[in-house]
Design a protein that fits this description.
Oligomer: heterodimer
Bound molecules: adenosine-5'-triphosphate, magnesium ion
Helix content of chain B: 25-40%
Radius of gyration of chain A: 21 Å
Helix content of chain A: 55-70%
Structural class of chain A: mainly alpha
Number of domains of chain A: 2
Strand order of the largest sheet of chain A: 1-2
Order of helices and strands of chain B: EEEHEEHEHHHHEHEHEEHH
Strand content of chain A: under 5%
Largest sheet of chain B: 6 strands, mixed
Largest sheet of chain A: 2 strands, antiparallel
Number of strands of chain A: 6
Largest interface: A-B, 37 and 57 residues
Number of helices of chain B: 10
């Protein structure tokens, strides 16, 4: 924080280095394998989700186990408005806000009846909500075929800006830009915006009201906070991030089906928030990156490692992955219960320096 | 402007078989410190909870500042101008002292989501004003040097002061303090008395629940005594202290 004022040269050098690294990342990863660019893109989508859920769980302290439902809403809105399924092909910059809006409405719908619930009760209702949405998309194929049921929706339009297509490779200035690499850049841009929005929300009147509710709801009410509205706002804001992420997921994958929105995904996102550090934007980002990349790394290393050591596969990589994942969560909660990078509010200073 | 700020008219509240409040009526004048005393379990905190909208009264009503008080929700009561502290301190533990007071400004400010995201000029100015006012209030209650410390890490006496600062941030017409000296030692109590005196001098009207007899005697203009949910006496502290019923209630109870 202070580095910027004390050593501006050093600070801006650091910023420039990070920027160059982020810009070069997909090009380097492409050399390793395009799969890694895809994994990175998915990781960024999970950062969106984790940051959205962080508003609800981390800031406002409302446990939500059905968060993936908003991702589903965003994904299906995109799929329906940009695929041969209904013959609609709207451009993505129109659909993403629509998806965010629908997710936002879904968030308010979930929020409204659950306002009086806390803790375990809220967790159970939100879990049910997540399942309802999944089962709805699974079954809305008759009598009118809206979601195409378990078969899902295919051939979803990729992003397109004028002449620029996002699904194919292009060579510019002698450098090969694959489809996923191009998506990466647009995801990175949106990610910057999402991070700024989250940091600003945290340091705002509404952000403080969310945290106040989390800390002590009765005191928050007595301080004049309309807890009903402020909680609804948390649900709606969190959901709209999920909706945007869902829309991008649809476009990048080109295919959606109910299978992508199972409870396991909600739990994954929640784990990212909890592991990283509830309420701390940077911690949550770290959590999302860790839980996105480490399992993939294991996927690519566990099998060759076993082959090299024992000459054959002893343990199924999937089993080992879950084992390590579980152990990591248990250890974190044991030794760092507030997450790897917990929220800290004491270093904050305000521009309006004390003048009395 | 009438002299009476708050008038409670026959407030009753039961919890199952317990009559926590039976037809309690009292009126608080502008600018005074009104004490509410009585043995443990007499119904004092319940009176606060009903007044501030945390519990619904079974019967009775309040007239506040000349109009009937609509107690639909606690935040409405705060908006009408009644702010309180809690017997068992309720701060926002993992927020700094400064932020706790800033939350108190929520009611009197208006920035929404869009303002928060865009950080336009109006929002920034409002935010600066909130911080500025919070700093002033922390100075006023005497804990400004701790403004960046998490509320839960503050010393006990400072937590009580912080709760008062947070309550003041809502710009109350009536400040209701529930045992602000509970758990304090003699020096802390003495300095708290100084703060409450200053509050009165600055024109605040205060409703004070307190067990510390010395504090009540030294501060209150008038007191009401509750016993088993009933108001058994009311008047200047020196008179009430001699009231036969009051003496009996206290001797019969556990608190001397
Ligand atoms: N939420 C509640 N549910 C059931 N009974 C309650 C509740 N709140 C208070 N009571 C009962 O109402 C009566 C009055 O309690 P109250 O807390 O108002 O007393 P008090 O005068 O504040 O006492 P103290 O000096 O110990 O704080 C007590 O008998 C108490 O047990
Ligand atoms: Mg009490």
């Amino acid at each position: 924080m202070n580095l910027r004022d004390k050593q501006p040269a050093l600070y801006w050098c650091g910023v420039a280095l990070v920027a160059i690294a982020l810009i070069a990342l997909p090009l380097v990863l492409t050399l390793v394998g395009t799969a890694w660019v895809r994994i990175t893109n998915l990781a960024i989508l999970f950062i969106f989700l984790a940051l959205g859920l962080n508003i609800v769980v981390g800031f406002a302290g409302l446990l939500d186990l059905g968060y993936i439902a908003f991702y589903a809403v965003g994904a299906y809105v995109y799929a329906l408005l940009a695929s041969p399924h209904f013959g609609l092909h709207l451009p993505f910059w129109i659909i993403l806000p629509i998806g965010a809006f629908f997710a936002c409405v879904a968030g308010a719908l979930l929020g409204a009846p659950t306002l009086r619930l806390r803790g375990d009760y809220l967790a159970i209702v939100t879990l049910g909500f997540g399942e309802i949405v999944r089962i709805l998309v699974n079954n809305l194929s008759s009598p009118f075929n809206i979601t195409n049921g378990p078969k899902g929706i295919t051939r979803i339009d990729p992003f397109r800006i004028g002449e620029l297509e996002f699904y194919n490779s292009d060579t510019w200035m002698g450098i090969l830009f694959t489809g996923p690499a191009k998506y990466y850049y647009i995801l990175l841009l949106i990610l910057m915006a999402v991070i700024v929005i989250n940091l600003r929300l945290q340091q705002s009147r509404i952000g403080r009201a969310w945290v106040a509710i989390r800390e002590d709801e009765i005191a928050a009410k007595s301080c004049g906070i309309n807890t009903r509205n402020v909680k609804l706002l948390a649900f709606a804001m969190g959901a709209s991030f999920g909706g945007i992420a869902g829309g991008m997921f649809s476009a990048i994958q080109g295919f959606v089906s109910p299978e992508s929105f199972i409870l396991h995904e909600s739990i994954m996102v929640l784990s990212m928030v909890v592991l990283g550090g509830m309420g701390n934007v940077w911690g949550v980002i770290a959590g999302a990156l860790l839980l996105s990349f480490v399992p993939e790394l294991l996927r690519y290393t566990v099998e060759p490692a076993q082959q090299a050591l024992f000459g054959r596969m002893l343990i199924d990589p999937e089993v080992l992955r879950m084992l390590i994942f579980g152990a990591a969560l248990v250890l974190t909660m044991r030794f760092r219960p507030a997450g790897l990078w917990p929220e800290s509010r004491h270093r904050q200073e305000f521009s309006g320096e004390h003048r009395s | 402007m009438s002299e009476v700020l708050l008038e409670a008219q026959a407030i009753s509240k039961r919890f199952g078989g317990v009559r926590a409040l039976s037809e309690v009526s009292l009126s608080i004048r502008r600018g005074e410190i009104y004490g509410l005393i009585g043995p443990n379990g007499a119904g004092k905190t319940t009176f606060f909870n009903v007044l501030t909208g945390l519990y619904a009264a079974d019967q009775g009503r309040f007239v506040f500042d000349g109009v009937p008080l609509k107690i639909s929700a606690p935040h409405e009561v705060a908006k009408a101008g009644i702010s309180r502290t809690f017997q068992n301190i309720r701060l926002f533990g993992s927020m700094t002292a400064l932020e706790n007071v800033m939350v108190g400004r929520h009611l009197r400010t208006g920035a929404g989501i869009v303002g928060a995201i865009l950080r336009d000029r109006a929002t920034r100015e409002e935010e600066d004003a909130i911080a500025q006012r919070a700093h002033e209030l922390l100075t006023y209650v005497g804990i400004h040097r701790h403004s960046n410390i998490l509320a839960r890490n503050l010393a006990y006496g400072d937590q009580r002061r912080l709760e008062i600062a947070r309550a003041l941030a809502t710009e109350p017409k009536l400040l209701a303090l529930d045992e602000p000296a509970a758990g304090m030692n003699a020096t802390e109590t003495e300095s708290l008395k100084g703060l409450i005196d200053a509050l009165r001098a600055d024109g605040n009207t205060i409703l004070l629940i307190e067990h510390d007899v010395k504090l009540v005697m030294g501060l209150c203009d008038r007191v009401a005594v509750l016993d088993y949910g009933e108001k058994i006496a009311e008047g200047p502290p020196a008179e009430v202290q001699r009231d036969a019923k009051v003496v009996e209630a206290y001797l019969g109870g556990t608190v001397a």
